[in-house]
Amino acid sequence: MIGGLVQVAGAVGLAVTQHYWATLAAVVVMQCGFAVTNPLWGAVGPRIVGDDLIGSMTSVQHGMRAIASPLGAGLGGILVQWHGDRPVMVINAISFAGLVVAALLLRLPPRVDGEPADPARLEFLPRDGIRELRRHPALVLLVWALLPLIVTLESVNAVEVFLLRDVFGASAFQFGLGEAATGAGAVVGAFGAGAVHGTRRRILVIVICLSLLPVAQIGQGLAPDFLVFLALGSIVGLTLGLSNALVFTLLLSILADTVRARVLAFVGGASRAMGLIALLLGGTLNATVGPRGAYVVAGVAGLVAVAVAAVRLRPHLRAGAPP
């Protein structure tokens, strides 16, 4: 609830101010609230639906997010074009207020494992999340494999426009079509994750998806034309949506109820830190080896990271191996 109120405050600040530094401060406030509420909502979900439905819940969540993100961006752009930015910020604040109301009305079922909740304390370092994650060898290997992949995958976000515009001569419509293809693939992959059951099967599918991702990325860099780039983009979206949903399903299903929020907070924070590194890497690669070279170099680096992780995960794919 408190995190939601912080998000409301940030959104209201964006609605009432036009000053640069005040706008920047409001964005920081809103993102701080998101950093608190996002892992908490993720940890609360399994308490509501029960452990047996964690896979289905995560699949639906990621699928709806993949739909809502581009849809919200498109609607926001239309509203800004017609009515300016202030009404959009007001709607944003109202949406966060709705989450606050939902938090107030939420009644969680009693814990089924008999473990008492840990006392609340303020920590700025994710030591607890790392400590809990290290108790599950397969999970920690997956997370450490994902972090460098986030760098290689998101690094080309800063390069994509140069590849499409300067190499393929794509129009603005084609650029949007490329984003739509990747987004559609992510939706299919996220919803498809609900059909994958069992810890070892989920790990196997994740490894396969993470292996296909950098291959498709290399293919995009070497694509002879826009249509091939588009098809490979849908594969990137599909494998990314499927692997993301399955990783979070594993985190929620294997971790104890009392530590889920801590681990999700660490994973989310580490992922965003990798995103910042990716922006710097993408710009550097584009300036040194060009857009095609950037895709190929990033894809090769991703393949190396996946190969190392796959070798270390092999024991956990055997029958009887602990997760």
Describe this structure in words.
This protein is mainly α. It has eleven helices and no strands. The protein has helices spanning 2-16, 20-49, 54-83, 85-105, 127-133, 137-155, 160-167, 172-192, 199-222, 226-254, 260-313. The longest helix is centred in the last third of the chain and has 54 residues, at 260-313. It starts with a helix and ends in a 10-residue tail after the last helix. The model is unreliable at 113-120 (pLDDT under 50).
Brief summary of the model shown:
This protein has 11 helices and no strands. Helix 3 packs antiparallel against helix 8.
Q: What name does the CATH topology of the largest domain carry?
A: Growth Hormone, Chain: A
What is the H/E string?
A: HHHHHHHHHHH
| Count of separate DSSP helical elements | 11
Question: Mind telling me the C-alpha Rg?
Answer: 21 Å
Main sheet characteristics: none
CATH architecture of the largest domain: Up-down Bundle
Q: State which percent range the strand residues make up.
A: under 5%
Fraction of residues in helix: over 70%
Number of domains: 2
CATH top level of the largest domain is Mainly Alpha
Low-confidence stretches: 113-120
Beta strands, count? 0
> CATH H level of the largest domain: which superfamily?
MFS general substrate transporter like domains
Distance between the termini: 33 Å
* Overall pLDDT confidence: 79
